[in-house]
Amino acid sequence: MTKILITGGAGYLGSILVPELLKLDYEVTVVDNFMYKQNSLLDYCMNPNFKIIRGDARDENLMKNLVKDKDYVLPFAALVGAPISSRDPFGTVSINLEARKMLSKILSKEQRVILPTTNSGYGIGQDGIYCTEETPLNPISLYGKTNVESEKIYFDRGNVIVFRLATVFGASPRMRIDLLVNDFTYRAVKDRFVVLFESNFKRNYIHVRDVTRAVIHGIQNFDTMKNEPYNVGLSDANISKLELCQKIKKHIPDFVFMDAPIGEDPDKRNYIVSNEKIEKTGYKPKFSLDDGIEELKKAFTIITNSIYSNV
C-alpha cells in the first residue's frame, strides 16, 4: 500500500485532499498543530488507513520518525498569504522555509515529494505577457520569497513535483474567507459591498478541489512529471479584481463595489499566467469561478463569523 505523509494536512487544502486520497486506498498520515482549532478531519478517524498526529512540522525528531516508511511526502504546512506572512515573519520563515529545508535533508533520495508553492513568485508581470514556468521569479512578499527558496531546495534535492498554485478559492471543511474570491463573495453575501484597492491588478485562480485533482494527477504520473514546476490555475481566469467583482455581481445582483481613490493593496502581485504545461500532461481543471461563487453563496449561508480567516 502506498504511504503518504502530509504536513499541515488538516488545513484548507488538506481537508479536501485527505478524503480523496483515502478513497484511492492510500495510507494517509497527517501531522498538524491545529493552530486554527479546526476539526475538519473528524469524519475520517474511523478509517484504518488514516493516521493523525498533533505535532509541529518544525520538530525534527518527530519528522524523522514519521517519514521513515513513507513513499510520498507532501509539505503542506505553511503560513499562507502575504498578510499573515508580514504579520508573523518569524513563523513564516520557520514553517514555510526552514521546516521544509529540514525535511528535505531527512528524506531519502528515493522518497517522492509533491511541493505546493505559489505563482505569486512571479511578482509583477508585463502587461499582456503570460508568465510560464520559465519566467524569472521575482517575489515581492515574504510569502512569495520563502516559497521560491523552498522550490530551489527541492529542485536541488530532486525527485519532486512543484505545483505553483494560483489563488485558491472554494469551500473546504477548514474554511478560509481571507482568500480573494472567498473574501469578495463573503462581502457580497454579508455586506453587499466592497471597496477595491488597485482594482486593475490581475491574477489567476484555481478551485480547492482542482488542487486536490492536480496532486492526485502528480502522484499517478510522477515519473513523467518529476523535477519540473507546473503552474496550476484556470486558463480562463486571468482576471483583475474589478472583473472578479463584476463576475460575482452576476450571481449576487445587489453587490456594490467601487474603486478607492487612495490606498494600496498589501499583496502587490499583478500578472497573468499560462497553465499550458500541466494541461499538456492531461490535467484539466473541473471547477470554474462561477461554480465556486455559487458554492460559496451556500457556504456563507452557513458561516456567519470571521473565525475562518488567516488574517
Identify the notable features of this structure and list them briefly:
311 residues, alpha/beta, Rossmann fold
Describe this structure as you would to a colleague.
Helices cover 37% and strands 19% of the residues. With 311 residues, it is α/β, with parallel strands linked by helices. It is globular and about 55 Å long. The strands form 5 sheets. A 7-stranded parallel β-sheet has the order 3-2-1-4-5-7-12, sandwiched between helices. Strands 6-15 form a two-stranded parallel ribbon. It has a single domain, classed as 3-Layer(aba) Sandwich (Rossmann fold), CATH 3.40.50.720.
List the helices and strands and how they pair.
Elements lengths: L2 E5 L6 H10 L3 E6 L17 E5 L5 H8 L4 E4 L6 H6 L1 H18 L5 E7 L11 E2 L10 H16 L2 E6 L1 E3 L10 H11 L2 E4 L5 E2 L1 E3 H13 L1 H4 L2 E5 L6 E2 H11 L4 E4 L12 E2 L2 H4 L9 H14 L9
Parallel strand pairs: 1-2, 1-4, 2-3, 4-5, 5-7, 6-15, 7-12, 8-11, 9-14
Antiparallel strand pairs: 10-13
Q: Strand share of the residues?
A: 15-25%
Number of helices: 11
Could you tell me the CATH topology label: Rossmann fold
Question: What is the count of distinct domains?
Answer: 1
Residue-averaged pLDDT: 95
Helices and strands, in order, run as EHEEHEHHEEHEEHEEEHHEEHEEHH
Annotation, overall tally of beta strands: 15
Give me a quick take on this structure.
By secondary structure, the protein is α/β, with parallel strands linked by helices. It has helices at residues 14-23, 60-67, 82-87, 89-106, 142-157, 180-190, 208-220, 222-225, 241-251, 276-279, 289-302; strands at residues 3-7, 27-32, 50-54, 72-75, 112-118, 130-131, 160-165, 167-169, 193-196, 202-203, 205-207, 228-232, 239-240, 256-259, 272-273.
